[in-house]
Amino acid sequence: MAFILSNLLSTLDSSIGLLDSSSDLLEVLQALNVTNSTKGHGKSQKRTYDTVASLPTATSTLRGSLAVVETVGDWQAPEDTDNGLYLCNGSEWTLIQGLDSAGTSPPFQGSNYGYASGGFTVDTIDQISFSADGNATDVGNLTVARGRLSGQSSITHGYSSGGSANDIIDKFPFSSSFTTATDVGNLTSSRTFLTGQSSIANGFGYVSGGDGGADAIEKFPFSSDANSTDVGDLTVVRKGPAGQSSSTHGYTSGGHPAVNVIDKFTFSADGNATDVGDLTEGRGYGAGQSSSTHGYFSGGGDPGRRNVIEKFPFASDDNATDVGDLTAVNDSHSGQSSTTHGYASGGYTGAPSDVIDKFSFSADGNATDIGNLTAGIYSLAGQQY
Predict the structure, then answer these.
(1) Residue 172 falls inside a structural domain
(2) DSSP 84
(3) How much is the CA Rg of the chain, to the nearest whole Å?
(4) Do 65 and 180 reside in the same domain of the chain?
């Protein structure tokens, strides 16, 4: 039986305008695959927007395009009924499917890059690829050169706070290939030898510990540039601890002088930390890494330097266990976390180090040297995207 191809295509194209949230998935896919030469036939390009208002203007050229609306940065997806998959029918964007993942917290780990920021007398921001082993690249600068600072990560920006008797909160975008950070707020006081935690789900960065007998836990918002506020206290005053983050809690582990305590505080409500376990020995100036299930403490010292990698579970309050070694004894280095590996970069091994170590989250074992920072740097902070 003969048919007119142009009529068939016209009929299929017009069906896009009839698609809505009650449409069968097969109807949607058939319409997209036939009518959109650039996005059909397995070439569909999904783009993510913060709000419906930020979607591009619906036009005939975008007919058949898909877009995702999902609040990022100050993450509040459960309250945002606009979140979902949208289809452009040529004149407007139609909600096809609400996001089933709206109630799932974004992960702390990064999937693209790790960052090593600042360091003793250094203002450099180095970028480390998570997709391929290799050397870091210099992608920016902090507003002030400083070391012994803390790092935090939102979905869109990295933060470097405190350090070198400073109260500055610096912020830099992950989307820029090279940038200078901006000063967006201040801690409640100048603090050095502090550590950081991040809650993307609740939209805050945290700092804890520090010199001068500091036991304060402070937080600052990701959604707006603002000063931090004091929201609680650690169980033990210490400087040089390491920070870890689960989806629900922040952890402050170890510290000087010879602290072995693992403290835990909730992201959902302000309050004091509780002692939930111990490292295998008391030590400070190590780096913290976080998988989706465990916190890690790598290296450190006091006295001496260590190369030990320890981990403790997020699901239960428990002590850490020794699961591997860094490639060298190291302290005052930075930690980064991808979805699959922990990284320990820079530090002091008897001299300033430029080594980037990497170890697996899926299996206990030793780290491997996979590249170098742009220079030997110690007392730096880590972030991930």
Answers:
(1) yes
(2) E
(3) 24
(4) no
